[in-house]
Amino acid sequence: MENSTLLYYFNLTMFINIGNYRYIAFVSCLLCYSFIVIANLAMILIIVQERTLHEPMYVFIAFLSVNSLYGSAGFFPRFLMDVLTDIHLISRPACFTQIYIIYTYSLYELTILCIMAYDRYVAVCHPLHYHRKMNSKTVYTLSFFAWVCPTCYLTVSINTIVRLPLCGNNIQKVYCASWNVVKLSCVTTAVNSIVAMLGAIAIAFLPFGFILFTYFRIVVACWKKSSEVRGKVLQSCLPHVISFMIYSITSFSDTALSRQNLKEINPFLAVVLSLEFVIIPPVLNPLVYGLKLPEIRKHILKILCLKLQTKKNFCRTLPDSTLIM
């Protein structure tokens, strides 16, 4: 009975006992989560409300923000609870739900970056045919595959993991991860490892290869253009390149960490490396696109100016006695 009870829960063992500093960590993480929600919601609302931003590139940026909200919701609420407690048990259903959300978030990010790379490729290499190639039907089709393909793949993959008989419940992570659960299996996982490796190669390297290919073609197309044209292309493509680099570095760190013996790594460093994958992209993406793309930056500044102007006018209408108070 005790064993079955233990196996109904997983124990997240990477949490460090930091004593009263947990409250500082909790407030810091809560502020970080609040910023993610506010910044990404602001990006979505600006793109939805402004008709001039109803173009494929900005629609895909809104998708990134939606995905950031989705992935953060699958991680932060549970993590904030764990920061304040000494016991870090999570039920099997909650654990597999978190695995599903975080891994679909990861694949959604990659597929959205793929269709954004294709959009930039068409805009730079085939500018005269851009509106014909990137019409509404194309955007809907690309969006459908960007959301549906990862969903189907992860549904099958996680369903396989759920069926594995487990001989332990300790997960060396601050959140549930599929490979950590697979390592707890009582049966030989050679076949599962091979299938998982092939799936990871297909899911990761093909999109990565496609993105690199599109940007190679963009560089070739711009090589003989004037410096002014190259500057405009760089301004348009740089945010996407930065987002792709951020995603690549953080996902590689998380994957590499999962394959290491965590007992040989500094615990604090291991926690930081495991957190950056689910924190850094949602934090930096709205900053990168909001600050680097002039159209979005212009609308952000316009909203801020309107609010400041409203506040200024409101203060002017108040009696002098009220202002003194």
Which keywords apply here?
78% helix, 3-stranded mixed beta sheet, 325 residues, globular, mainly alpha, 3 strands, disordered N terminus, disordered C terminus
Your description of this structure?
The chain has 325 residues and is mostly helical. Helix content is 78%, strand content 3%. The chain contains 12 helices and 3 strands; from the N terminus they run H-E-H-H-E-H-H-H-E-H-H-H-H-H-H. The chain has helices at residues 2-8, 21-49, 56-84, 92-125, 130-133, 136-162, 178-182, 190-222, 227-258, 267-292, 294-317, 320-324, and strands at 9-12, 89-91, 170-171. It has a 3-stranded mixed sheet with strand order 2-1-3. Helix 9 (227-258) packs antiparallel against helix 10 and helix 10 packs across helix 11. It is globular, with a radius of gyration of 23 Å. The N and C termini lie far apart (67 Å). 29% of the residues are buried. The model is unreliable at 1-6 and 317-325 (pLDDT under 50).
What is the ordering of alpha helices and beta strands? HEHHEHHHEHHHHHH
Structural Rg: 23 Å
Structural class: mainly alpha
Q: Bin the helical content.
A: over 70%
Quick overview:
The chain has about 325 residues and is mostly helical. The chain has twelve helices and three strands; from the N terminus they run αβααβαααβαααααα.
Give the topology.
Elements lengths: L1 H7 E4 L8 H29 L6 H29 L4 E3 H34 L4 H4 L2 H27 L7 E2 L6 H5 L7 H33 L4 H32 L8 H26 L1 H24 L2 H5 L1
Parallel strand pairs: 1-3
Antiparallel strand pairs: 1-2
